[in-house]
Amino acid sequence: MGFPRLGSDGKDAILVNSYDAVVVGGGHNGLVAAAYLAKAGLRTVVCEAREVVGGAAVTERPWGPDYQVTSLSYVVSLLAPGLVRELQLERHGYRVYPQGPYFVPYADGGYLQLPDDPARRREQIGRFSAGDAAAMERWDAWMHDLASVLGPLLSEIPPKLGSHRALDLAGQARLAWRLRALDQRRVADATRLFTMSIADLLDEFFESPQMQGVLSVSGLIGTWAGPRSPGTAYVMAHHHIGDVGDGKLGGWGFPEGGMGGVSRALAAAAASFGAEIRTAAPVSRISTSNGRATGVVLEGGEELRAGIVVAANHPKIAFLRLLERDELPPDFVTDIERWKTRSGVVKVNLAVERLPEFVDKPGFDPEVHGGTIVLAEALDDVEGGFQDAVAGRPSGKPFADICIPSVFDRTLCPPGQHIVSMFTQWVPQEWASEPMDEELEAHADRVIARFEAVAPGFTNSILHRQVIGPWRMENEYGLVGGNIFHGELSASQLFHTRPAAGYADYRTPIHGLYQGGSATHGGGGVTGIPGRNVVTQIRRDLRAAALRRRLWLERR
Fold it and tell me: In the CATH scheme, what architecture does the domain 18-59+77-96+255-339+494-555 have?
C-alpha cells in the first residue's frame, strides 16, 4: 500500500530522503500515527524538534539520573484497548497502575474521600450531606447513561456538517444513525451538558460546598474558564468518559516510567513496524506544490520528500508558521487565527524525602497517597481563583490536582523518596508571553503553603522543585499559550469545528496534508485517538485514489 516516490526523471525511484509519509511532531499522537502508517506498509519518518519524543507526555530528569519526572502531562486516560492491542504496546513496556480515588483535605479540619466502593463513598459523602450521598448515585447513573452514547463518538471521524456533497451527506446520515439512541430526554441532557457551566450542573444535584468543590475541578483542568463559565460541564464529561474510545467508560492511571513510558512504548512500536524517528529535527516549512503536500524542510535545510504529511503539532504552528497564509483558504486561516488556546496552568513537580502526613488522615493509605489529592475546598474559592487571573493577577488561593505516582512506580526516584506532581491553576493568560520566573515561584509557594496547612511538615520534606509555566510550555514543549489540549475544549471548538469548519475530518485544504494532533477531534488527554483516526482517513483516501486510478486505466 505504499505511496509512489518520483525521481527527478519522472520515474518511480526511492531517494535517500524520500518517504511515503512524514509526521511533523513526535508527541504521543504523532507516534501513534507513525506506528499505524508504518504498520500499513508506508515508509514513514517522524520529525520531532526536541531531543526526546513525547511532547507533553514526557519523562525527564531535572535533578539528575536518580529521578524520573513527568514534566507536564501526569496521568493517562487508559488508551483504547484496541490501540494497545494493535500496536502491541505491552510488548514494548506499556504498563499502567490504576489511579486511586479523590481525596480532599480541609484546612479547618476533616476531609472528603470518594472511594470506588459505593457503600464507603456514601458514608463519606453523608458526613457532609445525606442528600448529596443519595444524589451521587443519581449523578453516576446520569453520567454513565450520557457517556455510553457520547463516549464512542470520541473515536468517530466527524462528518462535514452542512456539506451537500453526496459522500458528506452519507457521513451525516451515519452520524444520525449512531445518535438514534438519544431520545428526547437524552437530547435535552446532551444540550445542557454542552452549554451549561459545571457550577449550574452540580447545583442541580448537590448542595454541599465540599461536593461541589471537588467535582468542579474535573470541569476545569487545563481550561481558561472558571466553574461558572458556560461549557465547563462538557469538560467534566470529557474527562469522566475517559477519552478511551472503543465504547468503554474510562479510568485514569500512572504509566510505569512516568508519561514518557507511554511515549517510549509508542516510539518502540512505530520503530518495530519500520518507522524512522528523528529527534532534534525541527521542521521549518511544510513543502507544497500546486495545492499538494510534497514533504517538509528541516531547519538545517534538509528536505524530506513525501506525498503524505501529518501535522501532529499545534495548529497555529502547523498552519500559520510552517505554511504561508496564501496557500490556504481565507476562511480556514481565519478559523486557525481565532483558535482559542489560552491557559493559566502551572505545573509544579517535587521530590520529597517522605510521603505527606495529613492531619486528619495520618499514616499511609494507598487510596489517599495513590489517588488524586485535590486542593479545592469550595466552588466559590475555585471561581475566585479564576477571576483573579482574569483580572491580571495570579490566583490568591490556587487549586491543585495532586498525585504521587511513585507510590506505585518505584523506578521514579531513590528508595524512601517520592515524586509529587501538582497540576495547578490559575495565573494570568498573559504569562504565556514572557517567562515570569519570580512570579511563578511565588505561585508555587502559595500552592505548597496550602498543602502545608493540611499536611504539616510537607514543606520541610521537599528536596527538589521544578516550576513550569505557560511561557515555557509554549516555547519548550510547543503548547501555544500553555494550553495542554492544543486548544480549549469549549463548545465552539468541538467535534465538527475542531479545529476549523469543514476540516474536522483530519484532512486540510492542502491535498496530502493531514492533521492529527490534540487540537483535532478526540484530542484532550493522552488517548491516541487523533493519531489513530488520521491514519484511518489516510487509508480511506489512498484506497479511493487507487480505485479512481484503476477505473481510469480500465477506461483507456
Answer: 3-Layer(bba) Sandwich (3.50)
